[in-house]
Every structure is written in structure tokens, then in C-alpha cells.
Amino acid sequence: MSDFVPFPKIPRLKRGCVITEKIDGTNAQIVVGEDGSVRAGSRNRWISPEDDNFGFARWVAEHADGLRELGPGQHFGEWWGLGIQRGYGLHERRFSLFNAGRWGQDRPACCGVVPVLYAGDFSTTIVDMELAALKDMGSVAAPGFDKPEGIIVYMTAARHTYKVLAENDNEPKGAQEAA
Hints:
Layout: E1 16-22, E2 26-32, E3 38-42, E4 46-47, H1 56-62, H2 64-67, E5 73-81, E6 93-97, E7 112-113, E8 116-121, H3 124-137, E9 150-155, E10 160-165, H4 173-178
Parallel strand pairs: 6-7
Antiparallel strand pairs: 1-8, 1-9, 2-3, 2-5, 3-4, 5-6, 9-10
């Protein structure tokens, strides 16, 4: 006989959510060790200044002292700007942390945070309204840039993240690239 496996608890849908701007760059992470070591990673691999991803590992090495202020652990964000995806009309590159609930003004000066567009109870109407406002007014992360990528919806009870793209949201990513 097999071990008993309980059915998981189901989070409620109409609970809190946080909607942030989805920035079109490259996914990045910074790992600060208990010993103060600082390491850079992309979405799926460790990187170094010799084997880099759009200069992120070099930037991490140059800002290691400030990045230690993040504290031990994995810190995920978006590396974006000049020469990366949409570029946003910037003349530099930026790192924006994803966890907007944790990182406000009390963060290393070299790091930004993805802009929060809404925090409150979830509804598809709110999601649609926030996406429409972003499309109408342009990027909050880079004011003046009129082609934002979309939004991220973080469901607090489920601890899960979803994306909604401003264009071609109904198509798989591969279909967009093939077109």
C-alpha cells in the first residue's frame, strides 16, 4: 500500500494581489552568501564577467559592496535598458528587484524595484484596467517609453505569479518569434 498523500489546501481567488509592470529585459539574480560572497546568475545558469549575460555579472562584481546590503539569500530581478530587448530609450542599464513588497526605499542605491501599479483584492476587472492604463500612459519604470511589455500579477494567498502581455498575450512565445 502506498503512503497517504493529502489533498493540498486551495488558496482563495478573491484575496490580495500585487500588480507590477513587467519589464522587458533579461531575468537576473544576485545571491548573497552567509559569508558575504556575491554571485550573479541569469534565469537558468550562473554567470561570470568572463561568461556574462548583457554585462550583468560584471555589474554585480562592480557593485558587490552595495549588493551585500540585500542580505543573505537569492534576490531576483530584471536587468534591462540599453541594448537589452526593448531598451526603453535608456542610455544605461538598470537592475530592478521583483519583490516590491520587500524592497521599498530601504535597498541598495544601485538597485531599483519593479513599479507597483496596484495592491488590493484580485479581480479580472482590475487586471484589465491596470493593463489598459499601462498601455495608454506608457511605462512607469521608464516614463516616456510608450511600448511597455505588460504586467505581472502576484497572487499573495497562492504565492504564485502570472503575466499578462500588452500585445499578443494569447499567443505562445515561440509563435511570436516565428512570425
